[in-house]
Amino acid sequence: MWYSRYLLKDLKTSKINKLVGVAIAVRYALSRRAFSVTPDGPEMLLLDYPSHQRRLLPLLAKACLMSSAGNFMKRMYVKRTPELNKSIHIYSSALKATLTWQNMTTLQECREACGGQGLKTENRIGIFKAEFDVQSTFEGDNNVLMQQVSKALYAEFLTAKRKNQPFKGLGLEHLNGPCPVIPDYLTSGTLRSSSFQMDLLCLRERDLLKRFTTEVSNYLAQGENREKALMLSYQLAEDLARAFTERTILQIFLEDEKNIPTGSLKDILGLLRSLYVMVCIDESASFLRYGCLSRENVAAARKEVMTLCSELRPHALAIVSSFGIPDAFLSPLAFDWIEANARSSGNE
């Protein structure tokens, strides 16, 4: 359990740095203006450009859903029992790898989205990125952690089949039911449906687990030992671990979301959730590679990302404010950066 405790520490650090970085970049984009769409018109805020929304708002959605997953992990550890030790290790390995990877991606994009201002020491994002880089290899290389996740899922699959028992734990209960069916044509309403989103991520995980176990079995049949067979199947192992983690993050967020009463907050959470899933589809080749979605449906998801970013734009400041980050934890870039630059120039 000591190992999982250190993984949780990495999760906590990842959560804080990612939220601070996104908050700074979003607040800067709500004050920094550049160019205009008409010759005599006012310059536009950065966050009013669709391309800038596409850069930052998916990171905001991921930060929110991954924060929910981090809180879930903390609650599980606090209430741990000997029976939960295995689950804690698997979840913490998957989430530590995924969240630390995402943290580096987020901080780099936020740094670039702030231009040269983002590199200044006083604005913190560049410092966060430099200091956090080592977290990707603390407590083990992230790629190795994700392979541990796939090996654990493989073991769960073999145990359930050998004992002829239903799957239980790790959110794998969906494997006990019929295989989800994805519509041939996906409308915007379907893409935003939580049941469709869960079905899609479960379908990918189920398919990859079957492919992974089949490939390992084929290597075993060729005379390889189990460890060698698992190593040779690393490509499917990586895809499976990612599918498990993304389904887990969505499932955790849905549990939190359902406890929120109907209203504007629930609507915003729905936008964040849908943007997270659409970006998962857009960024992962696995949905298309393994036939979970057609090219047309992947294109529809990509288009939906733009629409969701536009709808989320008016709520961006409220969302980053809801993080509750004290002003002292932010930077001049998140407030009156023009005045801060003027003071710096004066000191020179």
From TrEMBL:
Localization terms from the record: Peroxisome
PANTHER family reported in the protein's UniProt record: ACYL-COENZYME A OXIDASE-LIKE PROTEIN, ELECTRON TRANSPORT OXIDOREDUCTASE
Cofactor(s) recorded in Swiss-Prot or TrEMBL: FAD
Family per record: Belongs to the acyl-CoA oxidase family.
Gene Ontology terms describing biological process: fatty acid beta-oxidation using acyl-CoA oxidase; lipid homeostasis
EC code: 1.3.3.6
CC per GO annotation: peroxisome
Protein name: acyl-CoA oxidase
The reaction(s) this protein catalyses: a 2,3-saturated acyl-CoA + O2 = a (2E)-enoyl-CoA + H2O2
Lineage: Eukaryota, Viridiplantae, Streptophyta, Embryophyta, Tracheophyta
UniProt entry keywords in alphabetical sequence: FAD, Fatty acid metabolism, Flavoprotein, Lipid metabolism, Oxidoreductase, Peroxisome
